[in-house]
Specification:
eight-stranded mixed beta sheet; six-stranded mixed beta sheet; 30% helix; globular; binds flavin-adenine dinucleotide
Length: 412
């Protein structure tokens, strides 16, 4: 590997093999996927790999990974609140564990453990509840207390003189972080190698529906005929759904994050505080990756703000005062497609052939492998797999919400 890299460095760009190819836009595809993020790409990959469907196009208006998939803070975990959510995300963690080998591409999955702190009796009760439900589903989560937390995170202040002292934490050893770009590029390369056409700078501008059935899509490069369209556009999903005449119960909100300058390694778990509205992990490069909950307004602007970093820094310093002189390196924002119950929407819609894989809010990166695999199964068999049946579009009309707010609002 290193000799290959050295040769490439000496030869410049000439010897580099592109990760995926460019193709002319065909007049017709069996399946058109809108959105070149992890969800669209993973679905394309599993459509070919597991079901042999090769006549598939992924249409991306900007570049592969331009959306939330290239902007997230890479937390992977399955310690959710509902049995439906836990089983679903657990399959994703298992797929992630094998992903480097499956894609022949190092996705750098680091299962370093994930701590969700409890600062009040009420949140400690929720942590105990989550631990119980997790264990019943076979997922490794336990509640631990300040002495053990201190052993895992020696630099954190767990004393009892804080404004919000740490009373305990939900500890989830399989949780961790990953290299998000590698995951996205690995799926894109895997799909391309198997015959999927990836079309960047190809914006969907309309969806053709006849007699309540999808017959094609309009793009800035021309029309494409197809009988199956998958909407995998996250923050933009309600705009795409409206093109097909489908109304989604989704609000788009910005989510911001930031990183510090690199520091020597000192933090080898992910730390989340719902009460203080921040989370923190240390990247392989030593930068502290930090974030909070979504901005309190709807917007399609991906702008980061000073008030966000000021609030974030103040809260981080409450628990990590020794970081006071560390400098921020950069900050950014992405769009999140929030549903009322903080669970995704996957599957069929009232328009035949128009499918959705949306509502990924602040937590969808970890779900990419499982939703890609299960949505591919749905497309290939025209049946909803049991694992994703609870997340159907019609749950909102039948009053079957899958409430995950208590496990998904800050922890991502
Ligand atoms: C700051 C931040 C931190 C986050 N942290 C985490 C985390 O730690 N863990 C976690 O699990 N999740 C996290 N998330 C959420 C996660 O990033 C998203 O849920 C996930 O990436 C969604 O993936 P996707 O493939 O559905 O959508 P995206 O990656 O957003 O891809 C959608 C694509 O659709 C394209 N598109 C839009 N409109 C059109 C059109 N008209 N035509 C063609 N293409 C179009 C966009 O350009 C975009 O590339 C975070 C998000 C943000 C913003």
């Amino acid at each position: 590997m290193s000799i290959k890299l050295l040769k490439q460095a000496l030869n410049g760009q000439k010897s580099l093999t592109p990760m995926w190819r460019q193709h002319p836009l065909k007049e017709r595809y069996d399946v058109v996927i809108i959105g070149g993020g992890i969800h669209g790409l993973a679905c394309a990959y599993y459509l070919v790999k597991n079901h042999g469907l090769t006549d598939v196009a992924v249409l991306e208006k900007r570049y592969i990974g331009a959306g939330g998939s290239g902007r997230n803070t890479t937390i992977i975990r399955s310690n959710y609140l509902t049995p439906e959510g836990i089983l679903f995300y657990d399959e994703s963690v298992k797929l992630y564990e094998e992903l480097s080998e499956a894609l022949d591409f190092n996705v750098m999955f680091s299962q370093r453990g994930h701590l969700t702190l409890a600062h009040t009796d009420a949140s400690l009760r929720t942590m105990r509840w989550r631990a119980e439900v997790n264990q019943l589903q076979g997922v490794n989560s336990i509640v631990i207390y300040p002495d053990d937390i201190k052993k895992l995170v020696p630099f954190m202040d767990v004393s009892d003189h804080l404004r919000y002292p740490v009373l305990g934490a939900l500890y989830h050893p399989p949780g961790g972080v990953i290299r998000h770009d590698a995951v996205v590029w690995g799926y894109a390369r895997g799909a391309d190698q198997r015959g999927v056409h990836l079309h960047q700078t190809t914006e969907v501008t309309g969806i053709d529906v006849e007699n309540n059935r999808v017959v094609g899509v309009q793009t800035n490069r021309g029309r494409i005929k197809t009988g199956v369209v998958l909407n995998a556009t996250a923050g933009w999903c309600s705009l795409i759904a409206a093109m097909a005449g489908v109304k989604l119960p989704v609000e788009t909100r910005p989510l911001q994050a930031s990183v510090t300058e690199p520091l020597k390694p000192f933090l080898d778990t992910v730390v989340v505080s719902g009460t203080l509205h921040f989370y923190l992990s240390q990247s392989d490069r030593g930068e502290l990756v930090m974030g909070a909950s979504v901005d309190p307004f709807t917007s399609y602007a991906q702008d980061s703000t000073l008030s966000f970093v000021e609030g974030l820094a103040a809260h981080v310093l409450e628990l990590f005062p020794s970081l006071a002189n560390v400098r921020l390196l950069r900050q950014w924002a992405g769009l999140c497609d929030m549903t009322p119950d903080y669970s995704p929407i996957m599957g069929f819609t009232p328009v035949e052939g128009f499918l959705v894989d949306v509502g990924w809010g602040t937590y969808g990166f970890k779900a990419g492998p499982v939703s890609g695999k299960r949505m591919a199964e749905l497309i290939a068999t025209n049946r909803t797999p049991d694992l994703i049946a609870p997340f159907s579009y019609d749950r909102f009309f039948q009053g079957r919400l899958v409430g995950e707010k208590g496990a998904a609002s800050v922890g991502h």
